[in-house]
Amino acid sequence: MRELLPLPVDGSAHGIAIDNMLAIIHWLMLILFVGWGAFFVYTLIRFRRKRNPRADYMGVKSHVSSYLEVALALFEAVLLVGFAIPLWAKRVNDFPGEKDATVVRVVAEQFAWNVHYPGADGVFGRTSISLITDDNPLGLDRTDPNAKDDITTINQLHVPVGKPVIIRLSTKDVIHSFNLPTMRVKQDAIPGQVIPLWFTPVKTTDQLVAEMAEPFELKGDGTSPKLFERIAIGDLAGKDSAVIVKKGDVFTSDVVKPLMDAGYTSIMAAPNVTTEIACAQLCGLGHYRMRGYLSVDTKEAYAAWMADQVSQLPHDSTTTIP
Amino acid sequence: MEGNHDHEHHLGFWRKYVFSQDHKVIGIQYGFTSLLFLLFGFTLMMVMRWQLAYPGQPIPIIGSWLGDDRAPQGIMLPEFYNQLGAMHGTIMVFLGIVPLAVGAFGNYVMPLQIGAPDMAFPKLNMMSYWVYFLGGVTMLSSFVMPGGAANSGWTSYPPLSDIATTGQTVWLCGMVFLITSSLLGSINFIVTIVQLRAKGLTFMRLPFFVWAQFVTSFLLLLAFPPLEAAGVLQLMDRLAGSSFFLPSGLVVTGQPLNVSGGGSPLLWQHLFWFLAHPEVYVLILPAMGIVAEIIANNTRKPLWGYKSMVYAAIFLGFMSFIVWAHHMFMTGMGTIISTFFQTTTMIISIPSVIILTALLISLWGGSIRFTTPMLFALAFLPMFGIGGLTGLPLGLSATDIPLHDTYYVIGHFHYVVAPGTIFALFAGIYHWFPKLTGRKMNEVLGRIHFFGSFVCMNAIFMPMFIVGLAGVSRRLWDGGAQYAHAQPVLHWNAFMSMGAWTLGLFQLPFIFNLFWSIWKGKKVEENHWQATTLEWATPTPPPHGNFLTVPEVYRPPYEYSVPGQKRDFIPQNQPMEA
Amino acid sequence: MDASHAEDVRKHVRIYVSVFVALLTLTVVTVTISYLNLSVVPAIIVALVIASVKGSLVASYFMHLISEKKLIYAALGLAAVFFLALIFLPLLAMSDRIH
Amino acid sequence: MEIPYTVKARPDTGLVNAKLGVWLFLASEVMLFGALFSSYILLRIGSVEWPHHVLDVPLATINTAVLISSSITMVMSWASLMEKNFGKYRRFMGATILLGLVFLIIKYFEYTHHFAAGEIPSKSTFFAIYFTMTGLHGLHVIGGMIVNSYFWGPGSKMWKTQPERFTNRIEVAGLYWHFVDLVWIFLFPVLYLL
Ligand code: HEA
Ligand code: HEA
Ligand code: CUA
Ligand SMILES: [Cu+2]
User: Fold this and answer.
1) A194–B contact, CB cutoff 8 A
2) Which homologous superfamily is D56-193 in?
């Protein structure tokens, strides 16, 4: 239903509801417009001066139009009560419990996203603006016991798939807007406020990227050069089951022949991209490049990434990170 | 306040053409100034469109004139892009469309249509124009300020605007002038319409254009003051170091901001949108008025459902004061408040539908003449239709999540203001030109202008919906080139830019036509369009004081093709035959 | 309002003077109350009530609103409605936020 | 054609142009100060603590009395014109202007005192809104005084030529002046007492 709209791939649980609602509204708009448009064009042709030299003082007598207007009003009411309000209520009221969710602080600044994980203890360490330095952009107080295990990153938001994510959004300076196009999430970050938002990623970034894959004809030298900026969405093995192109690798011109020898005529290749955090509110000259990375990982991959982050924590944690 | 212009019939050049108190002269002054601003605002955008189409590539020709603090080696800086964006929006809305739709058309046509000798307060009228002019000059001067013009968007959201360069202060001063001008103007309009209507011209006999101006004036009168207040508060923040819009604990580029804090950034948004939503109906109502006049005249039949149109316009005006926060859905609204504003937003779409439907149905049974003004007026309907319909998904908070602050919004409102309002204004110019000059504009050039503009407008704005649905943010210096999710639609940027530049070319026949026709246009008789409304009952061009004899009105505004009459139109001031 | 005859002008003048006295007394009252330091809510209510009374006295008598034309009531009524919207909707928006 | 209803009221509306004009202007003024009061409320509710009785209440009380008095002298000056007593009008109008002046002088002392104490807009949102509101109101007072002075001096010539029209003008000027008084009546408790 939503396919007719050029929407980005969708990896969140609630995304489908929003997309379908979008589709329904656009169908309504299309029907209305075509209806009106048809009447419009027909009238123009039929009542042009040549064909109808003298106008009819009364014009249309029936009041069908008022019924149409009422119908439209009703439809809008349905959209409102049936879709819009419940959807919104679910977004802003039914937050999942903190225990069974990944809770993250995101602090926006010109022009980056600071990400703050509470770490193993699940408690965010104390932060203070007096501690803010270039290498401690969050002003995290490492001397605070709760802060010892806290993980901080810049522009890197990793979350495990299939588990609700709660983000406590705030900003250091001006208004930004935290936008995850592939998760149908958008929330302004308002200075002086912490605004929570939540979503449940149901697809990993890899899966989403795979969804963006398009088929490419393999025609020797005639192969579209576009292929060579794209990646494989799975291992491509030859007859001797030796892998020619590994999953995630960028295609190179010299794999074309081996692949064709291996009997491939057309292969799926995905853009070499990741899912993103975009800034949707004008926040200064760097607004256009205030881009972060959202990585929805499998449980294992997430755990691995976390472990790696932890290993990088300062061991003598009485001092703040140099 | 009253103007006693007893001896104005033999005035010197200055009092006659520059500091004139004649509503017609003032109307023309408004007209040319605003057209120039419209052209300027468009030019800014044509420059921006280069950067959007070919990010980071030197702008041909003008690139070298811009200077190193704007475009070193002709490559536009993000700072400058933001200045152009903010100024394009501001200029188009406050210095282009509104002065043209209200200041020019309202001033020139409305008093004539109600059979008034002039505006109720001619001196005030003159002041409104000159204060507007001052505001315009102030705005323009901001480009040469250190750090350039305002660069926080036409919405000027703090804290960004609070900490922005000097240009923002100039922007605020400019706005104060423009607001003052609009207030004076709107008072004048309302008093004129209420007090100076000709004998027999009851409210339900007013041409729809006058109704549109009437409602518009109320919007300006009551919605602008809060923005003026907000402007003063922001000036205080910037000049007196107060913290109306600055909460405590801000850290800008690593440095704690030393202000008292305790302010609220959302306060600005409420005050701004309290104006800015009614403002958008200020942009559309006069356009609807013009279109209504031209449709009635060129279908040679009365408007269908005139009364319902009038009530719809009034209701629209009223509702427009309580929908403003649909611009703020993403600021963290709870369910109750968002429900309230979604509901009012859905409600307000109905009167627009009623007006458009009435205009549409008015065509049925007509004897339609496809004159140039009529072409523009007709095109207005579907164009406004697209713009309006795309307002609906934006008006529902859930679907606004993916669409907010994307090019979808840009597409939405440009369809209503550009191929919508601008087309209506073009229509008005072609329609009333014979009234001003006694000559008519060239039809061939007119058609070239129309069809060219029509195609280009759609070429520019239709792709914006695609780009917007793909999730590309607005106000991006590189048009989204950075973002993965923008890649599939990126190629549209160049296409839209081509459209914009071609649109620019198609304005040349218009500009030429306009000036050429003033002196060389085909001479036409007094009531060239065989119209019924009072402005055509005056000599052309109307003398100072407008009417030779005090006009009296005997019938509704659009008595076209009355059965049993051999002429297919009866002027409003033609007495009933006993 | 054109009270052309000197007589009812004098009648008006009498009204003006009494309104004037009322305003002064109310001013004294509201000031003294403010020193009783009541708790916030009643304090606000009392002060605003008194202010409104004073305001309506000025409007009704000095500005002759009690005997004004319908049109002017309409214009002011409209302003009053939007004034309330401007005060209360932002308040509502501020109190009903995601948390 | 001349502009009608500048002196005589239009029958169906019962108004002269200027009067409708000024009432519309006042309606917009309501929205202007309305926005400021709205801001005041939002800021106050959002604030951690809000100062109480830090402003000079006695001075402000005097000032309230002064403005109220100026209102009655204003309306009296109009009444005098209704009584066709120009001399009396001159005296009352003069008094109105002087009272306005007294108000400003007192305000000046308040301001300078605050500045001396370092209580300026950047100190807190309270002082920010205090200076903004009273400052804007002060500008309105000055504006009113200019208009009134004009009608006291050069403008009063019109009394000889068009007494009725002049009386209308004074009524209109009065409406504005009373409104300025009215605004203060609300500013006073909101800023000084609460
Ligand atoms: C003239 C200007 C104008 C008009 C008339 C409208 C009309 C409407 N607007 Fe629009 N809007 C703007 C100008 C306008 N808008 C601007 C400038 C912005 C952006 C500001 C910024 O952020 O910079 C904006 C943004 C904007 C938003 C905020 C989006 C966001 O930032 O996320 C919303 C949300 O509710 C909205 C909704 C609406 C609605 C529901 C209408 C409704 O009134 C529409 C009702 C009309 C219809 C439903 C059409 C009916 C049509 C027909 C019957 C004709 C059919 C005829 C034929 C086919 C022949 N608008
Ligand atoms: C009334 C309002 C109005 C109008 C008419 C227009 C008209 C146009 N706008 Fe504008 N635009 C805005 C209001 C308007 N815009 C606003 C408010 C914004 C948001 C700013 C912000 O982000 O803060 C915006 C933003 C905006 C953007 C997005 C920028 C960004 O987000 O980064 C773009 C991009 O293409 C754009 C393009 C155009 C184009 C191509 C036109 C064209 O349609 C222009 C058409 C103009 C003409 C056809 C000129 C007609 C005049 C003449 C022919 C002159 C004749 C002269 C004489 C005779 C002397 N506009
Ligand atoms: Cu941050 Cu835009
Ligand atoms: Cu809006």
Assistant:
1) no
2) Cytochrome c oxidase, subunit III, four-helix bundle (1.20.120.80)
